[in-house]
Amino acid sequence: MTRKYNNKQEGLSVKKIIALTLLCLVLGPDVSARPRKPRTSLAGSHDSLAWQGEIARQDNLPFIIDDDVFVARVKAGKIKVLPNNRCKVFDSKMNVALWSRAVPISRLKAQGWLQRLPNNGSSIVDTRLDAEWRWAAPQVIRFLNGFGAKASAPKAAGKPLKATSAMRTPRKQAQLQNGNRNATGVESSAHLRGATIDIAKMDRVLKEVTLKAKKGQKPKKVWAWVRVPRYTPEQIKWLRTELLKLERRGLVEVTEEYNQAVFHITVREFYR
User: CA-based, 20 to 30 A from 46: which of 27, 183, 221, 230?
Assistant: First the structure.
């Protein structure tokens, strides 16, 4: 016998079901479940941060950990190493979603997943970035070489991209929090997943400057490191336009930071 569905008997009407579905799409925590409106600028937002987290989930990005910290957690019985760069988490105080993807730096380098940042005509590395942190996921390297070559053309940005920060670990992130107002929580930074790069908008040059003199004294001249724009306004406009185009194609997620004067860029696994 075929049973007929009765809206009144079963509870919710079709209209209510549709309304609740739309409400879930709008308010639900899973950003992948709702369409994203194209952005008109690269300004930072909660939506952009949410999408960086969604990229990490969709692209199965690892959670990069210092070797000694990883070993200590294993020995303490807080995590158990599983195949395919996975971990089983036993400590309820740990972020299970992150630590189940925890992988030590040395293993990611041995597997070839972490690669050295390029230093060529398309992309250079800030000299202040220590060698141990000049590593990133393969998609970041493709971006630096590919988009960097396009950006360095005279009619574009006119200079190679300059990387100031790449992959980090929670320990490194905690250190940066002391002096960087843009640095997010110890475990929430996109840099901990290896697919994020910061591109400089400013340069540092050694320049002779005149110090303001005290009353009755002569002005004093000293040599100091001074921040100067790396690009002209037209070149910055070109970078913003081209990066926004890539973001609308779903290839990158970009936030323009002003305190640190960088483009904070998360690159998708399928970037070519």
Answer: 230
What distance in Å separates the CA atoms of residue 52 and residue 30, rounded to the nearest whole number?
Answer: 12
CB neighbours (10 Å) of residue 184? 16
Confidence at residue 49, expressed as pLDDT on a 0 to 100 scale: 80
Q: What is the domain partition of the chain in residue ranges?
A: 33-59+115-272, 63-112
DSSP string, 104-140: EHHHHHHTT-SEEPP-SSSEEE-TTS-GGG-EE-HHH
Q: How far apart are CA 216 and CA 107, in angstroms?
A: 63
Which residue bears the tokens 């910290």?
69
- What pLDDT, on a 0 to 100 scale, did the predictor assign at position 183? 54
d(CA 95, CA 98): 6
pLDDT tens-digit profile of 2-55?
A: 444 343 433 444 454 344 444 443 333 444 545 667 888 899 887 888 888 889
Nearest by Cα to 180 from 128, 254, 115: 128
User: How many helices (DSSP H) and strands (DSSP E) are in the chain?
Assistant: 9, 13
Q: How far is CA 243 from the centre of its chain?
A: 14
